[in-house]
Amino acid sequence: MKSFVAALAALAMALFVSACTTPASDGHTDHPHGAETPVVSGQPADFNDADVTFATMMIPHHEQAVDLSEMVPTRTTNPEVIALAQTISAAQGPEIETMKVLLVQWNAGEAGGHEGHDMSSMQGMVDTATMEKLQTLNGDAFDKLWLQSMIAHHEGAIVMADAELKDGASADAKRLAQQIVTAQQAEITSMKQMLGD
């Protein structure tokens, strides 16, 4: 098991390093999240319980955002919503992998062991009834509920990231938290404009 975890960490590190040494544009230069996904350090630097909590809870939070984004192409033809969903998925997928690597480095579990936590009480998580309703909607009705849900979801992520910035010790985790705050605040502004708020 140790060799598997070490191999996972080494592979993920190699992917992150290679991704960050190749200049590339994601085609969304109008979004502040264009910054590269933080590279995790080669050595497990200082960390504390706040860092572990941040990564452990943010992984399923991000996973739900990816799930929400995957609904979009089949439920709307709104190009702004489609583009935003693609941006969210492209940003948060790699961030999930970064947090998994951090947890491995901290010996806190490959996926953070979030099975013991109540995900429904997490900041901004979309409840099951809303997730099911979204799957029954199309067009403008879908867009409205999806945008409202994603705004609340992003606001929850920002609260969690702010807590990491305040209480965390890991430079890698804090860098990721700042990236989340910057990108998701900008996306909240865009989504509110789409809703006409």
UniProtKB/TrEMBL annotation:
It comes from the Bacteria. Residues 1-19 form the signal peptide. Residues 51-195 form the DUF305 domain. This is DUF305 domain-containing protein. The keyword Signal applies. Residues 23-44 are annotated as: Disordered. Pfam families: DUF305 (PF03713). Keywords: Signal. The lineage of its organism: Bacteria, Bacillati, Actinomycetota, Actinomycetes, Mycobacteriales. Gene3D superfamilies: 1.20.1260.10. It comes from Mycolicibacterium arenosum.
